[in-house]
Design a protein that fits this description.
This protein is of the alpha+beta class. 49% of the residues lie in helices and 8% in strands.
């Protein structure tokens, strides 16, 4: 059987080489670069072309991606403003030179020999995230990627090189970051939300001033004071970072983590004359969340859940002293009777909010368990029995649906009231 790779100069490149040097698993995410070839030869060998901007091909057997070695030239603003040269004379070193970070600018040949013209292996040993060349400043997406790598490898002791942070700041000052399309910003943010050390992603963007341009709603939270009695960390931005650290130990669901990121946006809207109090911040945060989601084209399910968490998270912390009717209203607002998994996600956000405070990092917030208890009691109502009772009555059929809903709600409220009274008698 013909092996197409035997007729090509093939190199393992990028993240797969980086992760191999770091002792990480790379079998499921490998990229290949082909030097000295042409699109015509690749097709002749059975590779299937998929690239639109530059030649990328799928291997006929493994279906992994193989890209021709290329250089690029800046021709306009943003990450789309490039032209590519895929001439067979482009060398491996030239291809690596167009890449973003030294840790990603390495290749390995079929014998396992490392090609590392920019010192990526040394930077990995020294735990440094560093740009390859001045070409870094030509693509604003690289700011987001550097921040994401800072988050991804923060637990291994990596940090962004000072020279790279300076370059990123200059890109912000020059307005290059303004050319980023919202969809790409959201893509990188959602990737960060799905990974580790989200707070480091946010902090890296802030260090290079990109947070103010890309996520101004988050940037505004830094420096906003809170009441020390409830928030010993004082600064709202620090509180949000602590909440992000907390939610990582609770769930890996990116939608829940996004809701935690934006749950306190209303505190930036508080009039200065009432600080550090934040009256109605749970209401004032709705418009900034909606604006952020609209601007970044955030998926609607993320948007709706984030708005729900913002509006009701403060109520969840007061549920132990809340009137039965208000408790039932919250369960209904959470759409708990149709999507009970929402309660779990909502509780996770509220737990992260509670733990995201100095001195409360290990707080279990037992009051939040009341949400489960109230839901269990409310859902135990015999809805089928109530429906059968109404249907057997002489009531007009057109009115039966509303009557069934009314009686179910009344029964739920009664049971919640009985349980609430029992709790008060025990306290």
């Amino acid at each position: 059987m013909r092996n197409p790779e035997q007729e090509l100069e093939v190199y393992l490149v990028g993240g797969a080489v980086r992760d191999r040097l770091m002792g990480m698993n790379v079998e499921s995410d490998r990229d290949w670069m082909v030097a000295g070839s042409t699109p015509e030869q690749m097709v002749e060998l059975g590779f299937r072309p998929i690239g639109s901007e530059f030649p990328v091909f799928l291997h006929p057997d493994t279906h992994e991606e193989y890209a021709l070695a290329r250089t690029e030239r800046k021709t306009g603003r943003g990450y789309h403003g490039f032209t590519f040269n895929c001439d067979p004379q482009v060398s491996v070193e030239q291809d690596l030179g167009r890449r973003d970070l030294t840790m990603n600018a390495m290749a390995m040949d079929e014998k396992g020999n490392l090609i590392d013209p920019f010192g990526g292996a040394t930077d990995i040993d020294n735990r440094i995230i560093r740009h390859v060349s001045e070409a870094f400043r030509e693509d604003p997406v690289r700011i987001l990627r550097a921040a994401r790598f800072a988050a991804r490898f923060h637990g291994r002791g990596f940090s962004v090189a000072e020279q790279t942070l300076i370059m990123m700041s200059e890109m912000v000052d020059n307005g290059e970051v303004d050319a980023l399309v919202p969809e790409r910003v959201w893509q990188e943010l959602s990737n960060a939300l799905a990974g580790p050390n989200i707070a480091e992603f946010i902090l890296t963007l802030k260090r290079c001033k990109a947070l103010k341009s890309l996520l101004p709603e988050i940037d505004r939270l830094f420096g906003i004071p809170q009441t020390a009695k409830y928030h010993p960390e004082i600064d709202t931005g620090i509180h949000v970072l602590m909440c992000l650290d907390a939610v990582e130990g609770i769930t890996d669901d990116p939608m829940t983590r996004f809701a935690v990121l934006v749950h306190d946006l209303g505190k930036a809207e508080t009039p200065t004359d009432i600080l550090p109090s934040h009256h109605e911040h749970e209401i004032n945060g709705l418009e900034p969340i909606a604006g952020l989601c609209e601007r970044l084209k955030v998926p609607n399910n993320y948007r709706q859940f984030a708005l729900m968490v913002c509006r009701h998270h403060l109520e969840a912390h007061r549920i132990a002293r809340m009137k039965p009717g208000k408790v039932l209203n919250i369960l209904e607002k959470l759409n708990a009777f149709r999507t009970p998994e929402t309660i779990t996600k909502f509780k996770q956000c509220c737990l992260a909010d509670s733990r995201g405070r100095a001195g409360y990092e290990n707080n279990d917030a037992p009051h939040l368990d009341l949400l489960d208890e109230y839901y269990r009691i409310a859902i135990s109502v015999d809805q089928v029995g109530i429906a059968e009772q109404v249907k057997s009555s002489a009531m007009p059929r057109t009115a039966m649906g509303d009557q069934i809903k009314k009686l179910i709600r009344e029964e739920r409220l009664q049971r919640i009231s009985q349980f609430s009274k029992q709790q008060q008698d025990m306290s």
